[in-house]
Amino acid sequence: MNTYDVAVIGGGIVGSAIARVLGGTALSVALVEARDDVGDGTSKANTAILHTGFDAKPGTLESRLVARGYDLLGEYAEATGIPVERTGALLVAWTPEQLDALPELRAKAGRNGYTACEIVDAAEVYRRVPALGPGALGGLAVPGESIVCTWTTNLALATDAVNRGVTLLRGHRVTAVHPGPDATRLVTTAGELSARWVVNAAGLGADALDALFGHDRFTVTPRRGELLVFDKLARPLAPCIVLPVPSSAGKGVLVSPTIYGNVMVGPTAEDLTDRAATGTSEAGLAFLREKGAELMPRLMAEEVTATYAGLRASIGRDDYLIDLDAGQRYLLVGGIRSTGLTAGMAIAEHVADLLKGHLDLIERAGLPAPPRMPNLGESFPRPYQDAAAIAADPEYGRVVCFCERVTKGEIRDALASVIPPAGVEGLRRRTRAMNGRCQGFYCGARVREIFEGDRND
């Protein structure tokens, strides 16, 4: 049984970011993931927005970490090639009450340290987004809001962690914990390991793991968010992220471009009991079409190429729950909602600060450079467009997935990467193969054939 200085449980964005930071020290670190791949839970299915934190609750840990994470992830994206588009966002007021709320929303952004918001009139709203439905009275422009690839973000952080010496254990679902005087023994579905310290970044399973340590302080309620994805031909209709003015019922349904060139409408917000209920529902999709028709009627005439749903870990409070138990050498990172994409690197920084009094966290000299990730963004050069790359390696000119223009060279590279996909769904998140309008109908068999090892034409 291997013993590590730290076991980080959960291979989503937050867990991967924590493992990356700790892996940059002299500590031995394990990143323990229940599923067969990193980023296969909550992290893979969100609205993929890099938030400025303008609308967070001022004074909360979440507001501070989102603002810090925005800067950290922005810098990391430049270093690693994670695609980010600075589209900006526009909160649209449709009623006099919403219009009257805009000054306070701008003031709230200022209290969160974001001062670039601008109140605009109806004419400016329609100048910026001509396809909006009738009746908009004004809006609040948030120029710093951006779209990002959540898949690449997760994979970059996990790859960086592994390159720094972290041991990645996939398919290891923790089923029991046995604290001892020097280390905690973790029983998993793939064997046992022990660790001097345990960090719980298990997302939807964080409360269950917390209970194994004897706590009863929160319950995760899976909140399903369903989304509609429209064809790339619809992209000109959504030049920026369009948000409703938030109400007591929540942030509401948005219209957003995606980093892959599509347009997305959603999410819904439905509390469930089933933590595996990632399927879409007839009622949810009907609701999104109804809301979408109000926000942007022309969009509803475009083709829907995909629907999906993600589960967020709601814990019934307006802030993150990050707590260190020195006696058990255990640190909980819970209640990290969709803002975890933006805040992940700052959460890791905060976790490291909490652990400094208990572990030697001096950064090692000679750390490897951050990994350079393959570009999945539609607005940036892709291999099939790169004549020099194709001349050097013809496989980058051999398109396998024609909807998304994914080449055999990209699939080959993903299969040979530091963290190769465990299945074709993981390959989809690494390359965009089968992610287009046909959803793998035409290329799926060939992609699977390549995945399974047949490289012959």
Written account of the structure:
The model has no long low-confidence stretch (mean pLDDT 93). Helix 1 (13-23) runs parallel beside helix 8. 30% of the residues lie in helices and 23% in strands. Strands 1, 2, 9, 10, 11, 12, 19 and 20 form an eight-stranded mixed sheet that branches. Strands 13, 15, 16, 17 and 18 form a five-stranded antiparallel sheet that branches. By secondary structure, the protein is an alpha+beta fold. The longest helix has 20 residues, at 61-80. Strand 1 (2-9), helix 1 (13-23) and strand 2 (29-32) form a beta-alpha-beta unit.
- Mean pLDDT comes to 93
Number of strands: 22
Q: Work out the radius of gyration.
A: 22 Å
Summing up helix and strand content along with how strands pair, one would put the structural category as alpha+beta
Share of helix among residues? Answer: 25-40%
Essential attributes:
457 residues, alpha+beta, 5-stranded antiparallel beta sheet
